Structures are given as structure tokens and as C-alpha cells.
Amino acid sequence: MRRLFTTVGVFMALTCAASGQDLPRGSAKVNLPDTIRQPFRGATNKDQGHSARAEFEQGNQFFRSANYSRAIDSYKLAIRLEPTLFQAHYNLGVAFVDTREYREAARAFEQALALLPSSTAVLRYLGQIHHKLNEFEIAAGHYLKLLALEPDSTVALCGLGAAQVRLGKYAEAEASFENAVKLEPTSTEAVAGLCLVSTTSRQDDKALRYCTSATQLTPNAEVVHYLLGETYLNLHRYQDALGPLTRATELAPRDGFAYNSLGLAHYGLERYDKAADSFQRSAQLEPGFAEAYTGIGSVFLKQKKYREAKEAFNQALARDAASTVAHMNLAIACLDLKQRDCALEQYNILQQLDSTMAQGLFAQIYRNHVVSLPHSSKRLP
Length: 381
Description:
- This protein is mainly alpha-helical.
- It folds into three domains: 1-201, Tetratricopeptide repeat domain (Serine Threonine Protein Phosphatase 5, Tetratricopeptide repeat); 214-286, Alpha Horseshoe (Serine Threonine Protein Phosphatase 5, Tetratricopeptide repeat), CATH 1.25.40.10; 297-373, Serine Threonine Protein Phosphatase 5, Tetratricopeptide repeat (Alpha Horseshoe), CATH 1.25.40.
- It has 20 helices and no strands.
- Helix 1 packs antiparallel against helix 12 and helix 18 runs parallel beside helix 20 (355-367).
- It starts with a helix and ends in a 14-residue tail after the last helix.
């Protein structure tokens, strides 16, 4: 499957405010206190306390005007003047989120959590940030702490489930999302999570059920249409895949992975011109995505454009040297171009990557038959 873990990032936008949810950004989305709601602790004199208060409130003004760098400077100064001021650490973390400095944001929120371990807002942020940093064990730990404070939190359950997917703990992830559904049966986030985990773990029957439900609950969420299309591709139901994948590209016209999957559906239906268009669009949007070039090359092979096919497969291998499909079909293109040394080179490489596929290469060569594009060759992630 091509892009499920990018999908986890998109899944954040649905969402439970979890690692499935994108981090809130922008002054309109963050409630900052106008005044300090806890007394200053540790100030050595009134002037120091007043100065810290002034810097904190100045930081809030800068934040609301989207001047995040100045806000960060003000919050840092307030913290130097009053190190135990929870709100300043918290708002500093929020400002770093807005500048996408996630490592710095994590440090600020950890400092805030040390001052107030029961802050559920900080735990949500830390779960999201560590998920974004691909630190899934840490993210899961924060969501477990959040669940200890809020046992009925669908936010925590969905965040935990998304982290568990990334850790390959599919059974645990499914349980987390199912518990969220029990708490909130119409939760779009939880149903989308079940769609995600069942698609990722290739439970195709469940995936069809959950992803269909998710598209009904969130008809404008590209990710669930994409996942439904992926499930149909896994089942080789190419005609059924066209609808949701086309809808996914309509909702997210700059999603190169969705175009690649749409290309696979057209390829499976032998609509090679349409497949080529989709693969080309995928490559334009995701220049580093090897599978798009493998798709382009496979269409060229079907069209007997062997030089163009060879070039496309070389482009794919420049991006993913371990792509067995690209090596296999490059060998076939070389043979059709009467370049046996090139074909032999690919055969020798394949022996190291996949001996079974290498053994089958000769049969493919003598039949001069293009290797089918494998739908689930790679993508996690």
C-alpha cells in the first residue's frame, strides 16, 4: 500500500485532537489567557514579578497578531524572570507549534508538564508532537497518561490507536478505536481510525465496512475515500476503486499518492492512457515517489515504448533501489531493446533482493510478459 502512514498524518485532521489530529495552529485556534491565572512563585521582588507578567502578556499580544518569533522571545524572557510560570511554558510550546519547531515545542510542554502533571491539554499536545516526530512509543505513553486522567476520552483513545498503528500493534490499535466507538458511536475519528487500522492490517472485509461508514460520516474527508479505494485495490476490485479514488483526488488535488492509486485502478482495468495520466500526475506532485515512475514504465511496456519504459524504471530505481518490480520490468524492457547485458544485470540484482522473483524472471522473459504492478508492494510508509 502506497501511503497509509502519510494518511495517519491526514487522519489527524479528522479528528480526536489526537495523533490523528493535526496540531492546532494560528491564534484563532488557541485560547491564551489574557492574564496570569496562577500566582507567581519564586519572584524575588515585586519589580521582577511585574516584569515577568508584562512580558507574558506582551507575548500573548504578539501571538494574537501572528508575530510568533516575537511571542517566543517574550515568553522566554517571562520564564527567565519566573521559571515556575506554567502559562508561559505552555504558551511558548504553542508558539513553537505555530513555527513548526516541534522539538522545541516538546521541550516547552515537558517543562509545563513538570509544573502541572495533571494538565490534560499539555498531554494532548505532547502526544501529537511526538507522533509528528515519529516517536510513537513516547506519544503512546502520553496518551496513556491522558487516559489515566480522563478514562472516557475519545481524544486519548484515538491518539493511542494512531500511535499503535505506527508501532505495528494492530490488535491494540483496533481495541483503542473500538473503545472510542463504544463511548461515542458516531465519532468520525474513531470510525476513521477503524478504517485505517483494518486497511493497514489487510482485514479487507472489516476495512470495507468501516471505510464505507467513514465516507458516510465524513463525506468531505479525502483520507477515508482514499482508504476505501485502497481496500478495493487490495481485493482487485478495480472498477469499485475508481469512485472513491477519483473522489479522493477531487478533495485533495495535490495528493500525489491518491493519483498513484487511481493510476493502479485504471491499469488494472487496462485503461492505459488514463493510468499514464494518473501516474504522471503522481510523479509531478511527489517527485521522490518511486512507485509513480514504476507505474509510468509499466504503461510504456504495455504500449511497447521500450526506451521510454527503460528510462522510467531507471527513474524509479534512482528513488528506490530495492524495488523488485522496477528491476524485473527493467530487465524485460532491456530484452525488448536487445540489451541482454542490461537484463542480466537486473537478474543478478534480483537474486539478492528476491530469489523467487529472480527465478520467475526467465519465464517472464520468454513470454515477453510485463510483470503486474503489485498493489501492496510498499508504502508503510
